[in-house]
UniProtKB/TrEMBL annotation:
Keywords: ATP-binding, Ligase, Nucleotide-binding, Protein biosynthesis. GO terms for molecular function: ATP binding; glutaminyl-tRNA synthase (glutamine-hydrolyzing) activity. Residues 330-477 form the Asn/Gln amidotransferase domain. This is Aspartyl/glutamyl-tRNA(Asn/Gln) amidotransferase subunit B. HAMAP family: GatB. The gene is gatB. Heterotrimer of A, B and C subunits. It catalyses: L-aspartyl-tRNA(Asn) + L-glutamine + ATP + H2O = L-asparaginyl-tRNA(Asn) + L-glutamate + ADP + phosphate + 2 H(+); L-glutamyl-tRNA(Gln) + L-glutamine + ATP + H2O = L-glutaminyl-tRNA(Gln) + L-glutamate + ADP + phosphate + H(+). Pfam families: GatB_N, GatB_Yqey.
Length: 479
């Protein structure tokens, strides 16, 4: 009889903070830019240069800590983590080992079976990012770009509380939404502003002893993380079943080949020879400072979800979708404030907006149209100025170019024809030209009515008032 195994997973999540400048100098943190153009003596590790802490980094770290139920370490400090790597200009990284800024937190997730579960957060610490090695295969060399060196990070270290890829994704999604709502980071995995290292081990079901863990790096999408977890779980089980030992090591995941390979044996804290950074003073966080950060916390997703259902009377499904990204929630609230029609705003965002995002392979964060123009479009439909099919065509232009719908409808002559005389003339011609459909209608075939309405709309280039068309058609057919 084959043994049952349990997977034990803990995560180290690195998040690039949304500050305009780096953690210890005034260089830009903007993504992209020519190699080594966002650099200075401090972030390139020049001798004699001294770091100065960016206060906004501390406030973002505190905000994330408070939102994840952590204790704030009122007296925290920075340490040097010593290691030698070409993209690490000082040959050490400034981080926090002994007194991290946040400790003992937790976030609640929903498991696959619909139950609630808390995932513990061991600590959150502040640190600087390293540079980036670029491997040039044509020249057969590696070159280094220090633009990322010194970009502020927080590292969120979980407890080993997750038991499946689904729980890992639920936890990461919860963290991502909290951090995005706080404005502390955009958390774009594809740009590296949120990165997760997966620590995974397996053990026999029912055992309380941890197995030997491995750490997997280079995971830049939720799908890659799920695939890597499944692969590593099976690899470790195969080793155990074959009577071999799992080696504690760091592995690199290749998502194209769906395979991981060993990078190096896993270091422990003593291997990094940590010691307090002598160039940075300890950080004292007063109760008043914590209260100021707490008071500035925005409404997070959980509260928004409940409010959308009570205040705007939206169904739970609508509220789930709209609060699923901060961008959609922001557009929904701004548009609703202008037009006062929450359900109609929700319908446009969940219908046409989501359709176009999917078609164009875009994320909600990529939306560029203004709430004013969406509110104006809803107003044009409600006033009967345009009908719903024209509105959908106009919305596609708004989505792409953020045009003013009122001006566009006027210029393109898209206003609904409400002239009963002109409509009657067109409909009479349609009725006379389609005697078979008229006969079918009189024989009880309701589809014939739909055909005649369609022919009228086609003749009027989609600009007829549908209610008026139906009314006139029924009147003529009843004679």
């Amino acid at each position: 009889m084959s043994k049952e195994y349990e997977t034990v997973i803990g995560l180290e999540v690195h998040v690039e903070l949304a500050t305009k400048t780096k953690i210890f100098c005034g260089c830009s943190t903007a993504f992209g830019g020519a190699p080594n153009s966002h650099t200075c003596p401090v972030c390139t590790g020049m001798p004699g240069s001294l770091p100065v802490l960016n206060k906004q980094v501390v406030e973002y770290a505190m905000a994330v800590g408070l939102a994840t139920n952590c204790d704030i370490t009122k007296d925290c400090k920075f340490d040097r983590k010593n290691y030698f790597y070409p993209d690490n200009p000082q040959n050490y990284q400034i981080s926090q080992l002994y007194l991290p800024i946040c400790r003992n937190g937790k976030v609640e997730i929903e498991t696959e079976d619909g139950n609630k579960k808390f995932i513990g957060i061991h600590e959150i610490h502040m640190e600087e990012d390293a540079g980036k090695l670029v491997h040039d295969e044509w020249e057969d060399c590696s070159i280094v770009d220090f633009n990322r060196s010194g970009v502020p990070l927080i590292e969120i270290v979980s407890e080993p509380d997750m038991r499946s890829a689904e729980e890992v994704i639920a936890y990461l999604d919860k963290l991502r939404l909290i951090i995005q709502y706080l404005g502390a980071s955009d958390c774009k995995l594809q740009e590296g502003s949120m990165r997760a290292d997966v620590n995974l081990s397996v053990r026999e079901a029912g055992s309380t002893t941890f197995g030997t863990r491995t750490e997997m790096k280079n995971l830049n999408s939720f799908k890659a993380i799920a695939r890597a977890i499944e692969n590593e779980k099976n690899r470790q089980i195969d080793l155990i079943e074959a009577g071999e030992k799992v080696i504690q090591e760091t592995r690199r995941w290749d998502d194209t080949k769906e395979y991981s390979y060993a990078m190096r044996s896993k270091e422990d804290a003593q291997d990094y020879r940590y010691f307090p950074d002598p160039d940075l003073v300890p950080v004292h966080i007063s109760d008043e400072w914590i209260e100021r950060v707490k008071a500035a916390q925005p409404e997070l997703r959980t509260e928004k979800l409940a409010r959308y259902q009570s205040e705007f009377e939206l169904p739970a499904y609508d509220a789930e979708i709209l609060t699923g990204t901060k961008k959609l929630a922001d557009i929904f609230e701004a548009t609703t404030e202008i037009c006062g029609k929450p359900k109609k705003v929700s319908n446009w965002l969940m219908g046409e907006t989501m359709r176009l995002l999917k078609e164009k392979n875009m994320e909600p964060e990529d939306i560029r149209f203004s709430p004013v123009h969406l509110a104006d479009l809803i107003g044009l439909v409600d006033e009967g100025t345009i009908n719903s099919s024209v509105a959908k065509e106009v919305f596609e232009i708004i989505f792409d170019e953020d045009i003013d719908p009122k001006q566009y409808v006027e210029e393109k002559g898209l206003k609904t024809v409400n002239d009963a005389g002109a409509l009657r003339e067109t409909i009479e011609k349609i009725v006379n030209d389609n005697p078979k459909s008229v006969e079918d209608f009189h024989n009880g075939k309701e589809k014939a009515m739909g055909f005649l309405v369609g022919q009228t709309m086609k003749a009027m280039k989609g600009k007829a008032n549908p209610a008026m068309v139906n009314e006139i058609l029924r009147e003529l057919l009843s004679r």
